[in-house]
Amino acid sequence: MKGIVLAGGSGTRLYPITKAVSKQLLPIYDKPLVYYPLSVLMLAGIREVLIISTPQDIGGFEKLLGDGSDLGMELSYAVQEHPDGLAEAFVIGRDFIGDDNVALVLGDNMFHGQDLTATLVSARRKVEQKGGAVVFGYPVADARAFGVVEFDEAGHVIGIEEKPEAPKSNFAVPGLYFYDNRVCDIAAAVEPSARGEKEITAVNSAYLETGDLRVELMGRGMAWLDTGTPEGLLKAAEYVEAVQSRQGFYIACLEEIAYRRGFIDVAHLMALGEGLKKTAYGRYLMSIAREGGAQ
Fold first, then answer.
1. Domain of 275?
2. Nearest to 213 by CA among 222, 228, 203
3. Domain shared by 257 and 293, yes or no
4. Is the pTM of this model over 0.90?
C-alpha cells in the first residue's frame, strides 16, 4: 500500500500566519505539522508516500523532508494547482499509485492514542485482504462542520452526509482514508460539487453504494486534533507538550517510528541523533538508539 499526504490549501482561517508559509509547515510544539499526518502513514507500515501541495509551498516540503532516504522511505512530490477538492488527490497521484492500494491523510490532521497503530494496521489489512474502503467515525460534540456517518437501527452504515445542518449522528469522518485501487477511477468520475470541488464524501458514497465501505469507530481513548484555527494550533501544541513532558515519549517522531517499524537500523538512528545532538530532539533519538543496543 502507498500513501498520500494532501498538504494543500491556502490556510485562510490562519491568516496572517499563513500568508507566507503553508500551515502544514507551522510548528505544533516541537515539530512541523506535516510530521503528524506523515507519522500516521508510517505507523501503518507505509514506506512510499506522495506529498501534494501548492505550487508556492511544495519546495518547503521538499527541503524539510527530502527524498525520505533518512527515514528508509521513498517520498515523492506533486502540485495541486488549485484547491479543487480532496478527491483530486487520487487524480493527481494516479501514476504514483499505479496498481497499488492507497491511504490518504490530510496534512492538517493529527491523531494520537494507545491503540492507534493497531487501528491503522487493521484498516490496511482489511483493504489489502478484502478490498473496498475503510474510513473512520469519531465522536464530536457538534458534527455540522464535518462529513457525518448515518447508521440504521442495527448500527449499519447507510449514508455519509457532508456538513449537514441537522446531523444524523455525532460521528464525524476525520481526514484519514484507506482505499483499494478502484479509488483512482472513482475519483476521476466524481463531478464537482456546488463548491466546485471533487468531494471525498462522493468517493466514500460510491463505495457505500456497492457495499464496500467499512466505518471503524474511534473510541474515547483516541485523540483527533483540529489545527485549522489559531486556537486549534495552540491546543494541539499544548496537548503534545503535556504528553511528551509527562511520559517522556515523543509524538510523531519520524525517526523513532522509522526505527521501530524496521525502516532503518539502530546505527542509522544513532547517526541521525548525533547530527542533532545539540538539540533535545537529537538527544531523544540517541536515547532511543542506546535502548536498542547502540554504543
1. 265-295
2. 203
3. no
4. yes
